Amino acid sequence: MSEHRASGAPGQVKEITSLANPLIKDIKSLSLKKFRDQQNAFIAEGLKLIIDAFELGWSIRTLVFAKAARDNAAVQKAAARTVASGGTVLEVSEKILSAITRRDNPQAVVGVFTQRLMGLSDIRPVSNDIWVALDRVRDPGNLGTVIRTVDAVGAKGVILVGETTDPFSLETVRATMGSIFAVPVAKTSSESFLDWRQGFPGLVVGTHLKGAVDYRTVDYADRPVLLMMGNEQQGLPDALAAACDRLLRIPQAGRADSLNLAVATGVMLFEIRRSALSLAAEDPAV
Ligand code: SAM
Predict the structure, then answer these.
(1) What global pTM score does this model have?
(2) Is the CB of 211 under 6 A from ligand 1?
(3) For residue 265, how far is its CA from the centre of ligand 1 (angstroms)?
(4) Mean pLDDT value across the chain
């Protein structure tokens, strides 16, 4: 390992060429949940995501960039920012970046961040806030897409209920396209969720293939909404379905027996927002 000053970065940059380097081994291990949990850390790939993270107040532990990106002004700025906040900057070969990200054509920059989960007791829904609860979500692409959609629609956050895929896996973070840094995520057991739900000060709607109510007929305005979505294989279990004020159905026309979880969540979220906004638009005071 050698050290040099990257032009533009005020601190030292460690140049690493060996996959056996212990710093690289630690970062590489973050592709496994066990080590993510041990280190309480996760990897985000790409300069855009890292800049998003800085803008949203996340502090970075380690910035890793490809030798080929050494002269890129934005990379130098990110390196300077990492050093200024006490983080480590590593310059590595493309082979090392491939090993870290498990990709043949890796991004030129990756960052290591500390995981952040919020507690259910910190959620205080007010006015038109929308929260999404996902029951035992299995697929990292679905979870990442839901987090991204929650961000896009302006909802407040995601609650993961029961055994779920890891919000901090490489695949999930990739699918969020940076929204992992913008959307609060909470994780809880089904029992604690049901306790917490008792105090939810608004409308609790679940989506269900056997839902009695068409999702377009509900007035979601003027109160917080909690949207519950079922597991990809089994749908909402009875205990969670029974905790909903309404069970909603998205009518389908073709032969498919259900929508993909993330698609169904997107359809619901934009309808909930439309309903709330159209009422606000009719209000002369707004
Ligand atoms: N076989 C599962 C079942 O019986 O519910 C299908 C689950 S579906 C892939 C995943 C989740 O998306 C469902 O639990 C539900 O929350 C939502 N969903 C998908 N299509 C829906 C529809 N047409 N109406 C209401 N919810 C739907």
Answers:
(1) 0.94
(2) yes
(3) 9
(4) 93
